[in-house]
Amino acid sequence: MNTEFAEWLRGLPDDRLRALVSTRPELITPVPAHVDGLAIRAAGPSATSRALDRLDRFTLAVIETLVVLTEDDGPALPYTALRAAVARSVPPGETPRLDEALRRAVEALKTAALAYGDDQGLRVAPGVRDVSDSPAGLGPPAADVFRHHPPDRLTGLLDAVHGHEHSPGAEAGVVERLAEALAEGGVVERLLADVGPQARAALEELTWGPPTGRVPNARREVTLATAQSPIEQLLARGLLGATGDESVALPREVGLVLRGGRVHRDLSPWAPALTGADRDQRLADRTAAGQAFTFTRTVEELCEHWGVDPPGMLRTGGLAVRDLKRTAQVLDLPEWTAALVIEVAHGAGLIAATGQADGEWTPTTAYDVWRVRATEDRWEALASSWLTSERVPGLVGERDDRERLLNVLHPELRRPVAAEVRLRTLRVLASAPPGLAPAPESVHERLAYEQPRRRAAYRDQLVAFTLREAEQLGVTGLGTLSAFGRALLPGSSGEAALVLAPLLPEPVDHVVLQADLTAVAPGPLTSDLGRWLALAADIESKGGATVYRFAEGSIRRALDAGSSADELLAMLEKHSTTPVPQPLRYLVTDVARRHGRVRVGTAGAYVRCDDPAVLDEVMADRRASPLRLRRLAPTVVASRNSRTVVVDTLRALGYAPVAESSDGDVLVSRADAKRTERPPAARPAPGALGLDTDVVAAAVRAVRAGDEAHRARRRPVPEPDGQVPRSPSSSTITALQEAIRQGARVWIGYLDAQGQATSRILEPARMEGGYLTAYDETRAAVHRFALHRITGVADVS
Question: pTM above 0.90?
Answer without folding.
Answer: no
